[in-house]
Amino acid sequence: MSMKRTYTGWGAASAKGGWRSWAGEWLLLLAVMAGVSGCLTAKDSTPVRTATEELLLSTAMDSALENARFPWLDGKRVFVEEKYFDGYDKGYALGLLRQRISASGALLVKTDDKADVVVEVRSGALSMDTSQTLVGLPAMTLPVPLTGMVPTPQLGIYVKDSFDSVAKFALFAYEQPSGRYLQSAGPMEAKAYLHRYRFLFVTWRRSDVPELADHPKPKFSEVEPPSAQSP
Length: 231
Hints:
Layout: H1 9-36, H2 51-64, E1 77-81, H3 90-103, E2 107-108, E3 117-137, E4 140-144, E5 148-152, E6 155-175, E7 181-199, E8 202-207
Parallel strand pairs: 1-2, 1-3
Antiparallel strand pairs: 3-6, 4-5, 6-7, 7-8
C-alpha cells in the first residue's frame, strides 16, 4: 500500500522547486508591492541666515529706535542720505529710521535738491556674537585602528549657548543747499539676546525677542504724528 502526498500553494513550491522557487515567489510579491506603493520626498530650504539671527538683529534695531524723536525736523522737507550706512538688514534699519523721522513731523522727499534738510544716517554696529559654555567633553575626532579618524559627539553635563545682537545708530543733519550744520542725534543703541541651556536631558531658554521668548513682551506701538500727540 502506498501513500501519495499532494502539496499546494507555498508548500508545493518549496517541495518541488526548493528554495529557488520560494525565493522567486517572494521577489514577485515584492515587485508588485513596489509597483503599487507611492513615494514622498520632502525638500528643506537652507537659507544663508537663520530666522533666529534675523529676529535678534531686528529686535535690537526696534529697541534702539523705540524712543527716537527728532522734533527739530518737524515741518521740514527732509532727504535721508543712506550712502554712509552699512550693515546687515540695511533695508529694515533704514525703514525704521525713515519711519521715526517721518513720525517726528518731517516731510520726506526723494531727492536732495527738493529738501530743506539732509539727514545722514550711519551704523556703528549691526551684528551678533555667539558663544558657548560647556561642562563636559566637546565634540572631537579620535584615531581608531584600521578605521581612521572617527568623530565623537559632544557629551555635556551643562551647556549654555549664547546669541547676543547689537544695534547702534547715529545721524546728523545739515541745511540744504548751504550745507550748514543743523543738528545731530545718537548714538542710539540696544541689544537683544537668546540664551539656551541644557542640564543633562533638561533644556530651557531665555530671550527678550518677542517671537522667541516664553513670555513675550508687547512690542512698542506706532508713534503718532506730532499733530495727534498731546502737548
